[in-house]
Design a protein that fits this description.
The complex is a heterotrimer.
Chain A: E1 15-20, E2 30-36, E3 40-45, E4 48-53, E5 58-63, E6 66-71, H1 79-92
Antiparallel strand pairs in A: 1-2, 1-5, 2-3, 3-4, 5-6
Chain B: H1 2-11, E1 38-46, H2 53-68, E2 77-81, E3 85-91, H3 95-103, E4 107-108, E5 111-112, E6 114-121, H4 124-132
Antiparallel strand pairs in B: 1-3, 1-6, 2-3, 4-5
Helix pairs in contact in B: 2-3
Chain C: E1 3-6, E2 18-23, E3 32-38, H1 42-50, E4 57-61, H2 64-72, E5 78-79, H3 89-98, E6 101-105, H4 107-110, H5 114-134, E7 138-141, H6 153-162, H7 167-182, E8 186-188, E9 191-196
Parallel strand pairs in C: 1-2, 2-3, 3-4, 4-5, 5-6, 6-7
Antiparallel strand pairs in C: 8-9
Helix pairs in contact in C: 2-3, 3-5
Classes of the chains: A mainly beta, B alpha+beta, C alpha/beta.
Chain lengths: 98, 134, 198
């Protein structure tokens, strides 16, 4: 699978780490995504369930055999809407295609 | 009341010399705080062959005059020029204007040139040491 | 990343890391390739865009109607600076939405004198104001056609800073544009590959 499709893909079950955030306490949270709403990701860490807002954060995610940094603004949709909205982003935006 | 009296008595002692001021016809000129601050711009001329310093300065003056006119005091002086590299003096206040104008100097006497700014310094000595050595 | 957009193969490199050489028929060389699309009508534009290879920067030259049409095309990267370019308010707004950069070249100031140059200064200052309002992508380049129109990067940035351009913003736009064609790890804004999954 092409790595850029991460923004049109289901996130529940992916391994995620917060790399950049306006809230310094959030940096370093890592674990598995167990639930997702329009504006937040719920991450199961070793210490318990953490809720992280997507907007303005950068997530490091393992996907399609690659380690990627994804800006939270790109995935700021409801999970069921993501496939449609994500594909539109990839189609309309200026994206590398090779 | 008493304080005021003292001050008025003392005031008589403060002559020009005692306050460190020089009479107007002194050879020393302006006190350092009132002197114009200067900057020295080291530059390099890129062209085929060497360029004549006087003609280069003419071209620079012409460009500056057409850009800023007569009422903007730039304090331009060509301090040193050896055919390739040189030092141009200007006032500190007008440094940005001079750097802007130097970009637009594109020909001397019909020969195309480009001026590359190597750096800016506060004295000629450090200008030479930093940018023109080697 | 210090990159400049020029119209010839430079022999002086100053402090630049790389150049993008714009030409109507891009040739192989040590520099990055740019493709100038000169079009008089939208039909001609489409025809010429079809020739564009994947690793070419695409810049457009044409009148206002052509530019308005060109901004809509996905393949177009930037609107080049050329003699007699006209930009209007709605075009700049559209460029922001469609993510097309607007080029400002230094060499144009060298090709005119006196009153014409003064007009050009005014035009650039006014355009930069509109660009600041919409936060449109813009790049500050030398746009040189020979070695004497080339200047070091710092000088060009200082030149446009004097005219009121936001230099740091311009730097980030040009870096983004160049990364799109040179960095295999860059996919889009906010999405890049950092490494392999162990």
């Amino acid at each position: 699978m092409r790595p850029e499709l991460v923004i049109a893909h289901e996130w529940i079950g992916l391994n995620v780490e917060v790399v950049k955030s306006v809230n310094p306490c959030e940096v370093g949270i890592r674990g598995k995504v167990v639930d997702e709403t329009k504006n937040t990701l719920k991450i199961m860490t070793e210490k318990g369930l953490k809720t992280v807002i997507k907007k303005g954060r950068v997530f490091r995610v393992k996907f399609a055999g690659k380690l990627m940094d994804v800006s939270g603004d790109l995935i700021n949709f409801r999970p069921e809407e993501r496939i449609r909205r994500g594909l539109i982003l990839l189609k309309r935006g200026k994206v590398r295609r090779w | 009341m008493r304080k005021n009296k003292n001050v008025s008595e003392k005031a008589g002692f403060f002559t020009l010399e005692r306050r460190g001021l020089q009479p107007t016809n002194s050879v020393k000129g302006l006190p350092p705080a009132l002197r114009k601050k200067k900057r020295y711009i080291a530059f390099e001329v890129i062209s085929e062959g060497d360029v004549d310093g006087n003609k280069l300065f003419e071209a620079i003056k012409e460009t500056m005059m057409s850009l800023f006119g007569e009422l903007k005091f730039l304090g331009l002086e060509l301090k040193h020029f050896d055919g390739k590299r040189g030092i141009l003096m200007c006032y500190r206040e007008s440094l940005k204007d001079v750097k802007f104008g130097l970009n637009l100097v594109d020909s001397v006497d019909g020969v195309r040139i480009a001026i590359r700014i190597l750096g800016v310094s506060g004295t000629i000595k450090s200008c030479v040491r930093k940018f023109l050595k080697g | 990343m210090k990159v400049d957009f020029v119209r010839f193969k430079p022999s002086l490199t100053y402090d630049y890391d790389n150049f993008v050489v714009f030409d109507e028929n891009p040739k192989n060389g040590e520099f990055l390739k740019g493709y100038v699309v000169k079009a008089r009508s939208s039909k001609e534009l489409l025809q010429k865009l079809r020739r564009a290879k994947m690793d070419w920067f695409v810049g457009v030259v044409g009148d206002l109607n052509v530019l308005k049409y060109a901004v809509m095309r996905w393949r177009v990267d930037l609107i080049l600076d050329f003699e007699g370019r006209v930009l209007d308010y709605s075009l700049i707004k559209m460029a922001r939405e469609k993510d097309v950069a607007i080029e400002f070249s230094f060499a144009r100031f060298l090709r005119c004198r006196g009153y014409e140059r003064s007009k050009l200064f005014e035009e650039v200052v006014e355009t930069l104001k509109v660009i600041k309002k919409f936060d449109t992508p813009f790049v500050l380049t030398s746009g040189a056609e020979n070695d004497y129109e080339l200047r070091p990067k710092r000088q060009i940035l200082e030149f446009f800073e004097y005219l009121g351009a936001d230099v740091e913003r311009a730097e980030s736009w040009i870096e983004r544009l160049v990364r799109r064609y040179t960095d295999p790890n860059y996919i889009m804004d906010g999405l890049e590959i950092v490494g392999e999954d162990p």
